[in-house]
Specification:
With 225 residues, the chain is mainly α. The chain folds into two domains: 63 residues, Arc Repressor Mutant, subunit A; 136 residues, Orthogonal Bundle (Tetracycline Repressor, domain 2), CATH 1.10.357. 70% of the residues lie in helices and 0% in strands. It contains eleven helices and no strands. Helix 6 crosses helix 11. The N terminus is likely disordered.
Length: 225
């Protein structure tokens, strides 16, 4: 393994640097992602990943216990790279005493727009196609998505945002609303981006976010929004 790391540009041999070790890990993940998208998850072997990355199987197993661990790392990296930044939250003391629904609407629209952009990014769509095509035969794919925590983190961020502006509402109700909002926001645009109908234009996506926010506010405020 050290010989492979020593071959990295800028390496002087000896004990590999942390940067060189990280680059090697990224190279393995790049190779795995490319092969899974080219050949499918089932047809991608550890031997093929090691060969594409230019490492030995021993080096591979030093980093990943098995193929399940590899796909978990691949999925986690795709989701982490696409994940929108946590929305900035105002402090409770800076908020008006009465709920400011216009401010909440703007914050939700910003959150929705960044989340939808992430969901429609090329790598996320490619991963989604892979999961749809092979998860019935390889449950490791679905398990990897669950372990990544991407959706759970998005729900937490959304609940925090709503709770700050509407502290009087039941957190369980807000969590349910957040789950439904994400489902409405992402599902149809993703399907259309994959060819099931016409892909949405940027203007379509903007309107979609705005109308989905309308539904969310109407639901959590009992139709008063």
């Amino acid at each position: 393994m050290q010989a492979e790391l020593a071959a990295q540009p800028g390496s002087r041999g000896g004990r590999p640097s942390r940067e060189a070790a990280a680059q090697l890990g990224e190279r393995i993940l790049d190779a795995a992602m490319d092969l899974m998208l080219e050949q499918g998850y089932g047809a991608t072997s550890i031997e093929a990943v090691a060969a594409r990355a230019g490492v030995s199987k021993r080096t591979f197993y030093h980093r990943f216990e098995d193929k399940a661990a590899l796909v978990q790392a691949v999925v986690a990296r795709v989701i982490e790279r696409a994940r929108p930044a946590r929305p900035p939250l105002a402090t409770a003391s800076s908020l008006p005493s009465a709920p400011d629904l216009d401010a909440l609407r703007r914050a939700l629209e910003d959150f929705g727009a960044s989340t939808l952009r992430a969901a429609l990014s090329p790598q996320v769509l490619a991963l989604y196609r892979l999961i749809i095509g092979e998860s019935h035969r390889f449950p490791d794919l679905l398990r990897a998505v669950a372990l990544s925590g991407g959706r759970a983190q998005a729900v937490r961020n959304l609940v925090d945002l709503m709770q700050l502006h509407l502290p009087e509402l039941d957190p369980a109700r807000l969590e349910f609303a957040a789950q439904q909002f994400l489902q409405m926001l992402v599902s149809l645009p993703q399907l259309r981006a994959m060819g099931i109908g016409d892909a949405m234009s940027p203007a379509d996506c903007e309107a979609w976010v705005s109308r989905t926010v309308d539904l969310l506010l109407g639901g959590i405020r009992g139709g008063s929004a």
